[in-house]
Design goal:
Layout: E1 4-5, H1 12-18, E2 34-39, H2 44-61, E3 67-73, H3 81-90, E4 92-93, E5 104-107, H4 123-136, E6 139-143, H5 145-155, E7 160-174, E8 187-197, H6 200-205, E9 209-214, E10 218-226, E11 229-234, H7 244-257, H8 274-289, H9 301-305, H10 313-360
Parallel strand pairs: 1-3, 2-3, 2-5, 3-4, 5-6, 6-11
Antiparallel strand pairs: 7-8, 7-9, 9-10, 10-11
Length: about 350
C-alpha cells in the first residue's frame, strides 16, 4: 500500500515525486495503519531534502503495510524566515504529539553549535520529546545528533569531539544479531557526516546492542529497549540520497570561500570516483589561490553528480522494512491485549452467571 501523508502538511512536489496518496487516513482504515511521526530538526538548507529522504525511504520500504506519515517541528531549533514559513505551512508542533495516536517516531539531527548538547536552545524540548517517546511509541529512530542526545538524556553518555569531520561512505560490518538486520549482508556501506562520536565500550556498559560498526568510522547503529519503546540509533545516515554528501561538501566549501571557516573541508571518504577526485582536487587548489565566494559558481556539481552511485540504498530499505514490520507486530500485539482486557469483564460475568445457574440446577 502507498505511504500516506497528512493532507496539507507536505509539499505537493514530494507527493508527486514519490507517488504518495496525499489524503487523510479514514477512521475505517486506521486500525492497522502504522502512524509514524517525523520530527525534522535539520537546518533550513536541508529541511525539504530531509523530508524527501525519509518519506521516500518509508514509501519504498513499506511494501504491503499501510503507513501514515505526519511532520513535526521541535521548538528552539534556529530558523530563518524561509524555514519558519515552511514549518508553518506543513508541520505541527511536537507539543501536539500527546494528542495524536502515533506508533513510532523518527527524530533527525541538526548541526551542532555547542560542545555540550544540554546547552543547545532546543535541549529542553528535545529531552521532553525523548521522554515522551520512551513511554508512548512502539519504536523510535534517532538520527545522528538525536542519537547522541538520546544516550545523553537516558544514560548520561557524552559524545566525544573528533579532530575532523567524519564524512563519507564507510564499510560497516555486522556486530550483533537483531531482527532489524535480518536479510542484510555481513558487510554494508553507509554515509556518515558528523563531528562527534560515541565510544562503543560506554554504550555496551549501559546495555546498548551495537548492530553495525566500522573499523574507520566506529559505531554505526545500536539499539536499546527504553520503557515501552525500542530505540534505534544511527550515527550514520542510511536515509541519505546519492547526492546528499556532495551537497554538504559544496556547502562547506562555500563556507570556506566566504571565510566562515578557516580550513578547506576534507573530501568525503569513499564517495567519489577517481576522475571526480582529480577534478575536485584541481578546484581545491584554485580555491586556495583565489579564495572568494564567487568561485563557488564554478564548482563542477553537475558533472560530479552524474558519476555518483547509491550503494547503501538496498541495505537502508532492508533495515527500514524490518523496522516497520517490528512496529506493525508490536501494534498488533497491543491490539490483542486491549481486546482481551476489554473482553475480560464480560467473560468473568458470564462465568459467574454459569456458576450460579449450575448451583440452581
Amino acid at each position: 500500500m502507498p505511504l500516506s501523508i497528512d493532507k496539507g502538511q507536505t509539499p505537493n512536489r514530494d507527493a508527486t515525486k514519490n507517488g504518495f496518496s496525499n489524503q487523510r487516513v479514514s477512521p475505517a482504515l486506521s486500525a492497522g495503519c502504522i502512524r509514524v511521526a517525523l520530527v525534522n530538526n535539520m537546518p533550513d538548507s536541508a529541511l525539504e531534502d530531509t523530508e524527501a529522504q525519509f518519506s521516500g525511504l518509508l514509501a519504498d520500504a513499506c511494501g504491503k503495510l499501510s503507513v501514515h506519515l505526519s511532520l513535526y517541528s521541535l521548538s528552539g531549533v534556529p530558523r530563518g524566515e524561509r524555514g519558519k514559513e515552511h514549518l508553518q505551512r506543513f508541520y505541527r508542533s511536537t507539543d501536539e504529539l500527546s494528542n495524536n495516536d502515533v506508533d513510532a517516531v523518527i527524530i533527525t539531527g541538526t548541526e551542532p553549535r555547542q560542545a555540550d548538547l544540554r546547552e543547545e536552545p532546543y535541549w529542553g524540548a528535545l529531552a521532553t520529546l525523548l521522554h515522551w517517546a520512551e513511554a508512548n511509541t512502539e519504536s523510535a529512530i534517532l538520527s545522528c545528533l538525536a542519537a547522541h542526545a538520546s544516550v545523553l538524556h537516558s544514560d548520561r553518555i557524552a559524545r566525544h569531539r573528533l579532530s575532523d569531520k567524519r564524512f563519507g561512505v564507510f564499510d560497516q560490518r555486522m556486530a550483533g544479531h537483531h531482527r532489524l538486520t535480518e536479510g542484510i549482508l555481513e558487510t554494508i556501506r553507509f554515509p556518515h557526516s558528523r563531528w562527534n562520536e560515541l565510544p562503543e565500550e560506554e554504550l555496551a556498559s549501559c546495555g546498548y546492542l551495537v548492530l553495525t560498526k566500522s573499523a574507520e568510522a566506529g559505531v554505526d547503529s545500536f539499539v536499546k529497549k527504553k520503557k515501552r519503546s525500542l530505540f534505534v540509533h544511527f550515527q550514520g545516515h542510511p536515509e541519505y540520497g546519492a547526492q546528499t554528501l556532495l551537497k554538504e561538501y559544496r556547502r562547506d566549501i562555500g563556507r570556506f570561500l566566504r571565510n566562515e571557516r578557516e580550513t578547506y573541508p576534507s573530501m568525503p571518504h569513499g564517495y567519489f570516483d577517481a576522475n571526480s577526485v582529480k577534478v575536485l582536487t584541481e578546484f581545491q587548489a584554485n580555491a586556495a589561490l583565489h579564495r572568494h565566494e564567487d568561485l563557488l559558481a564554478a564548482f563542477p556539481q553537475a558533472s560530479i553528480a552524474s558519476a555518483l552511485q547509491h550503494p547503501w540504498r538496498n541495505a537502508a530499505l532492508a533495515i527500514y522494512r524490518n523496522w516497520l514490520h517490528h512496529v506493525a507486530a508490536r501494534k498488533a500485539d497491543a491490539r490483542k491485549v486491549a481486546v482481551a482486557v476489554k473482553a475480560a469483564p464480560a467473560t468473568r460475568a458470564y462465568a459467574r452467571a454459569s456458576a450460579a445457574a449450575s448451583r440452581v440446577g
